[in-house]
Specification:
This protein is α/β, with parallel strands linked by helices. The protein has two domains: 129 residues, Rossmann fold; 162 residues, Alpha-Beta Plaits (2-Layer Sandwich).
Amino acid sequence: MHSSPPQDRANILVVDDTPGNIQLLAEALKDDYEVFFATSGEEAIEMASGKRIDLMLLDIMMPEVDGYEVCRLMQLDETLREIPVIFVTAKSEIADEAKGFDVGAVDYITKPISPLIVQARVRTHLELKASRDRLRALASLDGLTGIPNCPYFDDMLAREIQRARLDGRPLAVLLLGVDHFKHYNQSEGHLAGDRALRLIASALLPPPERPLDLAARFQDDQFALTCPDTDADTAAALSRHLLARVAELRIARGASLTHLTASIGGVILEPQPEASAPPTAAAATARARALLAKAKRNGHNQFWLERLGGEA
C-alpha cells in the first residue's frame, strides 16, 4: 500500500473496515503522501501510537470500537491528541457532524468521496497543523542556542520511550556536558561562554542520515539527545563522533594550548517484556546525569554508557 518516499512526505493513516474504501482514499493520496491503513479502531490507535502519523482519515461506522470512540480516546492521550482527525463517513446528519466535532475531529467528508475534495481537505489541515507545529516549536526553543529547550526535550523523551516500547526497538538517551565550562565562562567572560555554547549546540545537530534524533539544551552547559533505534554499539560510535565534533571546534581556553572538550553519560533503553513497565523519562535522564558525572570524574573527554542491566 505504501512505498519508500522521501522523508518530507506526510504520513496519512486511513482507518476503515471496508478494503474498497481504503483503496479509494489511498489512490487519491498516494502521489503526495505516505499512506498507512488500519481496519479497526484498536489497530488505528496502536498504529498512531507507534508511528509518526500527521493526519488520520477515520470512518465512523466500524464494529466494536467506532470512529467516535477512537477520536475520543485519542483526545485523552497527549501523544495522540495533536493528530488532526477527519471523519470520512456516510453519516450526513447535522447531529452526526456535531458529535464528530465534539469528540475532537477537525473536519467531515461524506461518502461517496470526491478525490479532489479529499486532497483539498487533507492539504488544508496539514498546512494548519504545520503552522501550529511551528508556533509550538518557537515556544520550545532555547533562547541562547536556538535548539529545543529542556521542557520540550522532556516531553519528546516521554513520547520516544512509548514509541520505542511499542516498536520493540532500542532508544539511546545521551547527556553531554562541556568540560571545565564554569572556569572557562569566568576566565573568558560570559560573551565568550555564550558563543561557545552556540557553537557546541550547532555541532550536536543531527546529520541527515539520523533525521529522528533530537538535540536539546538540557541546562546550563549540558545538552541532551534522544536517539531512536540506537543500540549500545551505535550509541558508542555516536558518542565518539559527538565528542570529536566538540573537540574539532577548537574553542581555545585562554592563552593555553588546550581547547574545550565534552563528556557524555548515556543510557540505552532496550526492548523489555510487555509485562514490564518502561523506565520513565525522569529516570532515564537521572541515570544519564549520574554517568556523565562519572565520566567527568574519570578524566573528561570521554563517555560512559549503560544498558538496562549493565554497562555498555
